[in-house]
Design brief:
With 257 residues, the chain is mainly β.
């Protein structure tokens, strides 16, 4: 039969308004030192806390609000402001994370919930899940949060919002902007080591790199990936909005308003 193809400019869905979350903007000269935490409940009042937290087991970390409570890690050798070990569960809410390293690092077989939190002016990455390891199996849920203005790492110039190994990712009602490399990267492998990712009502913008293959992408995927994007907006990405590596074979992409 005869088919008519009409080329039109794609229209991005309008994103519902997301409440702004203020990051901590006060001076950090009078920060209180945080001791190492391994489990339980950590409630932080308003103010600045200097140090890096290691989580082994189950923990809930909550502050007085992202504009009122900040955790600042000043150790360049630490993996993250909050470093979550294997087989742990963490709930992080109402804080700002910043420092000379990533915001959050998550090892395999862990479950992490991040809510009403700002990760701002951390170094290299906002959240890293499994650091490229196989057999990750972790779950990350981010809601009502902001990851912004991640400082590129010296030498590699890598900076990103979320780097996810095989497992489950959900990002909802959030904003990610200001990265050199990518907003979200999905490092899946085969069918047994795939990623199921959902991005809902979220803005991803201002990805400014483009010198390397993995730079300048709002969403970058390799390996087995099932990706659903709904009611979200992507703009100001220097290379592509959504990029799937050329050697990907097991990919499912669902887009909806």
């Amino acid at each position: 039969g005869n088919y008519e193809v009409t080329v039109e400019t794609p229209v991005m869905p309008s994103i519902p308004e997301i409440d702004e979350l203020p990051s901590y903007s006060k001076a950090m000269t009078d920060c209180v030192q945080v001791t190492e935490i391994t489990g339980g409940l950590l409630v932080l009042s308003d103010g600045c806390y200097r140090g890096c937290i290691t989580v082994s087991g189950n923990i809930s970390i909550t502050g007085g609000g992202s504009g009122k409570t900040v955790l600042f890690c000043d150790d360049v050798n630490a993996r993250a402001v909050i470093d979550i070990k294997e087989n742990s569960e963490a709930n992080i809410s109402k804080v700002t994370l910043s420092g000379l390293t990533r915001g959050v690092f998550i090892e395999k077989e862990s479950v992490v919930f991040i809510d009403e939190t700002v990760i701002s002016e951390a170094t290299k990455g906002g959240v890293n899940v499994c650091g490229g390891e196989s057999e990750c199996g972790s779950k990350l849920v981010i809601k009502n949060s902001v990851i912004e203005n991640i400082i590129p790492e010296n030498g590699t110039e890598i900076s990103y919002g979320i780097s996810m190994g095989p497992g489950t990712l959900s990002v909802e009602d959030s904003v990610l902007h200001g990265f050199n490399s990518f907003g979200i990267a999905l490092w899946g492998e085969n069918e047994d080591q795939s990623i199921v990712a959902e991005i809902k009502n979220t803005l991803i913008s201002d990805i400014y790199g483009g010198q390397r293959e993995y730079e300048g992408h709002a969403v970058y995927a390799e390996g087995g990936t099932i990706l659903s994007i709904a009611g979200s907006k992507i703009n100001d990405s220097s290379a592509t909005f959504i990029y799937f590596s050329s050697d990907v074979t097991d990919v499912v992409l669902n887009l909806s308003d």
